[in-house]
From TrEMBL, chain B:
Subcellular location: Cell membrane
Protein name, per record: ABC transporter permease subunit
One BP annotation, GO: transmembrane transport
Domain of life the protein comes from: Bacteria
Entry keywords, A to Z: Cell membrane, Membrane, Transmembrane, Transmembrane helix, Transport
UniProt KW Cell membrane keyword: yes
Family of this protein: Belongs to the binding-protein-dependent transport system permease family.
GO cellular component: plasma membrane
Chief location: membrane
ABC transmembrane type-1 domain span: 69-261
Pfam family, one: BPD_transp_1
Membrane protein topology class: Multi-pass membrane protein
């Protein structure tokens, strides 16, 4: 397991004990106590931060989710009302549908694009570092700037893509202004920004032992066979890691959609939902409930539902991963 | 045939792909130098005939670019310092110190990675607003010093720390070195590559952060670049040439940073245990 692998394997320090006398045992005990103290000291800042900025707000959020908390009115316990609201509210359903679209489509697309580019870079070609840089840069362009660039690139009349399509006599779609094309536009944008995923895959690919490929050559495997039987199994722990990180990211998908929906709308549009609600993602609705409508109770309940879904999906992925993730012997 | 398969095809694909990846950014630069007329020209113009450098000057005149950059720089550097203080400490505590809480600590770190930002968002906002800290940089910077939201970075650090031989630490202990000394004089120097990688990653993500500043900053004077650009965009949403010039100005510093940190960043990522 990627992160469980080493956590237990480091032996307890065996301090030299030459005799099993009482004094030595005492020393061992003292040593252990001292270790516990040092451990606590080193972990101290993180633990304080965890209590203050993670554990407390997580608990508070659970509590708020059962109240009508809204910053202005006195707080009242309303039981499961907020959860009932989640089930009954039409916009929640829309936002879940939109979010599932991103999770189901954007995750494999980002992983596939990232892996494809990493494999291209893993060949011995000249100028590798220049190509690597070109692939990576889009992923570090700040979200606001990349959203702006794509809004302009996808501009129906004067944007780059439709202009290029026009040369071939194709009339491009309305992209961000057409409900059917908003999410594909986002996928395009996210695929362009998958350099972060690429870089980690590249590091993993460079670790795959040459000997495995040589053995496959001797067995007469083709390129495709090598990909399925050597590359994929060798990097499967990394695929698992990136899969989970991507799933988490897309469940919480926010910034790009926020930019695109608040900027494509003309005038002060507070709905932040894009054409025909096509960009109303779960995290967008949650933000709107919390900081536009100040229904902190709704938002907190939504956050907990998101937490539970993320937890369940991560757990399911871990469970199934035993079937497809292989850990090479060390 | 074999050279064709091994050299030509990957090379062509690489050139093609990098062209596709570079095009939007080139389009950004080209637009930022266009005049209003060229902007909507049909057929489109890819290289402006008469580069309008004043578009950049215009941005300087409408938004206080230096102040925004200074603010963003301040927050980003503070966040980097914060994570680089709290992160390695926690990573050391769950790699080379054998204490009772070691595995629990690691479980907590992993759990914080899985916890959606949205869960803590509302109560933290309430907390900071009760402490009258909304509108200051404290909510954006303080959590970093206490390792909050840094689960992924601590995880990276720990994976690297584990690659250092435990015997090294033990030997130092037997020689009577204090933990603080082992940490400062042995662990940290050996971990320079991964520590700087984490530093760069924190800088990149804080520099581009949007939601944090959106929640906590409410005065134009304290805005970051992301927020400033967002506000600018809401008032100038048709002047694409200026928007693109502003975006370019926002993006260029980060690309320069990347060029300097590139080797470090990529080596660091391959060094951490994340490779498998």
């Amino acid at each position: 397991m990627l992160w469980e692998r080493d956590s237990l394997s480091i032996p307890f320090p065996s301090f030299p004990t030459y005799s099993s006398g009482v004094t030595e045992e005492n020393r061992g005990l003292k040593m252990r106590k001292k270790n516990n103290m040092t451990g606590l000291l080193f972990a101290g800042p993180f633990l304080i931060g965890f209590l203050l900025f993670t554990l407390y707000p997580t608990g508070a959020s659970l509590f708020y989710s059962f109240t009508n908390f809204n910053l202005f009115k006195p707080l009242k316990w309303i039981g499961l009302e907020n959860y009932k609201w989640i089930i009954e509210e039409k916009e929640v359903l829309i936002s879940i549908r939109n979010t599932m679209y991103m999770v189901i489509i954007a995750t494999p697309v980002s992983l596939a694009v990232g892996l494809f580019m990493a494999m291209l870079l893993n060949t011995k070609v000249r100028g590798q570092s220049i190509f690597r840089t070109l692939f990576y840069i889009p992923s570090i362009v700040p979200v606001i700037a990349s959203s702006l660039v794509w809004m302009w690139v996808l501009n129906p009349q004067s944007g780059m893509i439709n202009s290029i399509l026009k040369i071939f006599g194709v009339n491009g779609p309305n992209w961000l202004l057409d409900a059917a094309w908003t999410k594909p536009s986002l996928i395009l944008m996210l695929g362009w920004g998958s350099g972060g995923i690429m870089i980690i895959f590249l590091a993993a690919l460079q670790e795959v032992p040459r000997s495995l490929y040589e053995a496959a050559d001797i067995d007469g495997s083709g390129e495709l066979g090598k990909f399925y039987h050597v590359t994929l199994p060798s990097i499967s722990p990394i695929i698992l890691f990136q899969l989970i990180m991507s799933l988490i990211t897309y469940f919480q998908f926010f910034a790009q959609a926020f930019m695109l929906s608040s900027l494509t709308a003309s005038g002060p549009d507070q709905s932040m939902s894009g054409p025909e609600n096509s960009l109303l993602f779960y995290a967008i609705l949650l933000y709107r409930e919390a900081f536009v409508d100040f229904s902190m109770g709704h938002a907190s309940a939504m956050a907990w539902v998101l937490f539970l879904i993320t937890g369940i999906v991560t757990w399911l992925v871990f469970k199934t991963s035993k079937k497809w993730v292989t850990y090479g012997g060390e | 045939m074999s050279t064709l398969k091994q050299k030509v095809i990957p090379y062509t694909l690489l050139v093609l792909c990098s062209a596709i990846f570079a095009l939007p950014l080139l389009w950004l630069l080209s637009t930022s130098l266009k005049s209003q007329v060229e902007l909507f020209a049909d057929p489109p113009i890819f290289i402006p005939h008469n580069p309008q450098w004043h578009n950049y000057a215009d941005v300087f005149n409408t938004i206080n670019f230096f102040r925004l950059t200074g603010n963003t720089m301040f927050i980003s550097i503070m966040a980097v310092i914060g994570v680089l203080i709290s992160g390695p400490l926690a990573a050391y505590a769950c790699s080379h110190i054998d204490w009772r809480g070691k595995n629990i600590l690691f479980a907590i770190i992993i759990a914080t990675m899985l916890l959606p930002y949205q869960v803590t968002m509302v109560p933290l906002y309430v907390l900071f607003s009760k402490m009258n800290l909304v509108g200051t940089y404290v909510p954006l910077v303080l959590p970093a010093f206490l390792g909050a939201g840094a689960g992924y970075y601590i995880f990276l650090l720990r994976q690297f720390f584990l690659t250092l031989p435990h015997s090294l630490v033990q030997a130092a202990r037997i020689d009577g070195a204090t933990e603080a000394r082992i940490y400062v004089q042995i662990i940290l120097p050996l971990c320079k590559p991964v520590v700087s990688t984490v530093g760069v990653l924190v800088f990149l993500s804080t520099w581009s952060d949007f939601l944090g500043p959106l929640l906590y900053l409410n005065d134009q004077k304290t805005y970051t670049l992301s927020l400033g650009l967002y506000a600018f965009m809401q008032t100038h949403y048709i002047q694409w040439e200026q928007l693109m010039a502003a975006s370019a100005m926002f993006t260029v510093p980060i690309i320069i940073l990347f060029f300097f940190a590139q080797k470090q960043l990529i080596e660091g990522i391959s060094l951490t245990g994340i490779k498998g």
